[in-house]
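We recall that each integer encodes one residue's backbone shape. We quote one record:
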Amino acid sequence: MSSTSVPAQTASPSTTLGGQLRASPAVMGAIDALVRETKAASARLTDIRPANPGLKESYDALMKRAADVRGRALLYPYIGSGLGNGALVELADGSVKWDLICGIGVHFFGHSDGELIRESLIGSLDDTVKHGNLQSNFEAFEFMETLLAEAKKNSRLKYAYVSTSGAMANENAIKICYQKHAPAARVIAFKDCFMGRSVTMCQIGDTAEYRQGIPLSTLVDYMPFYEPAVAEKMGLKRYIDQAVWHLSQYLDRYPGQHACFIFEMVQGEGGFNVAHRDYLKALMEVCKARRVAVWDDEIQTWGRTPRMFAYEQFNLGEYVDVFCIGKMTQACATLYTEEYNPKPGLLSGTFTGEGPSFRVGRRIIERLRDGNYYGDDGLIARHHTAFREQVKALAACHPEWFPKVIDALGYEHEIAGGLGGMMKFTPFGGRKEKVTAACKACFEEGAILFYCGHGPYHVRMLPPLGVFKFEDWPRVFAVIEKGLAKAAG
């Protein structure tokens, strides 16, 4: 028998064979060795670097294969090598870049994190790759327990159901709302919202090009998202009163026909727009009075505001009936209160996720809970201040890149914005063609960014603040400066 083999054995009264496998010194030693090797390789990535000319031919071949499979070229020529170091990531062409978008916010702890790799490796020992609704190991429930323990602190949320994507979490949420308020068939959402790519969610999302050719079967009414410039001009009370009137008009026009109002307290795809608490509270109070479910969508927001939950940031947890989470948590989930606990059979599915996703997601929640990330002086708030300082300094050096940002109604916007780890800045007046060109130029120079908004358009950043260092901000903006210079030319 090999010295690294797990000997034949039977389960003792206090453990199972599966438990013994995970506790095996041979298994844990092998996992320790894998993590050490990964960390040693990762540590060699210390700064950005250009592509290796010797890998160009093979990388071009990979890009072509990817395009052939998809039917069109990739938006960015990004194919990872499988290794990174915190905020730095290596691509398969040998280049190393700052990852400031992290898969649209998935990798809060960056690349090649040893602790999360360890959890993933332990999870990979499961007897099956996928967990399911009918048959599941306990990792899925442990993930939900850990999430609910945090969610319950400042809300009435009591139960959770996991799913394999944010769109599916949203699909489960809308089913819960429909069932609770049957036969109500209408939903209310904010202008410029984004909900996902399923047939139903692309209809709710306020981007026409994302639903081209899709039959419009979902009944959606749109409310304006909070506009600080308009609120300042009108006065906050009058502005809120007008919004309440607007919402009441919908509810009066279609009495008893609205199942839910979907709240993005900080919009993601829509432009990293930040609402005002009083505005949200007034609308939620109308929903409560008129028996319309308050659905809080935090799939992109969760974990990135100066409080773990956006409803905590705005102190609105008492109003939330249904809640969706994803991206940073690896596994996605729909949470709901006792009142919205659905009937048997409504929520199901062959797949709920994988053991590695549940274990990594649980550990991410624990690290956020136990770290110094939240609060007015937490790392997330301090990083946001550092980000704004860098934008301000860049604009002072190159004012020609940062003309006034004027929207379609003639209101001026700040050149830097967002909240917490959701960061945006607006060069070139927010013109789409220039902003997208700036993102691509920054990619070529070594910084991976993306854009958001519907006019004006913004450069969007979701940096891995779990591993990002304050001294890295000047290094990042030196690269961004080179990219903007190329786009400006």
In short: The first strand starts at residue 80 and ends at 85. Residues 1-8 have pLDDT under 50 and may be disordered. The domain at 130-370 is CATH 3.40.640.10 (Aspartate Aminotransferase; domain 2). The CA atoms of residues 192 and 207 lie 7 Å apart.
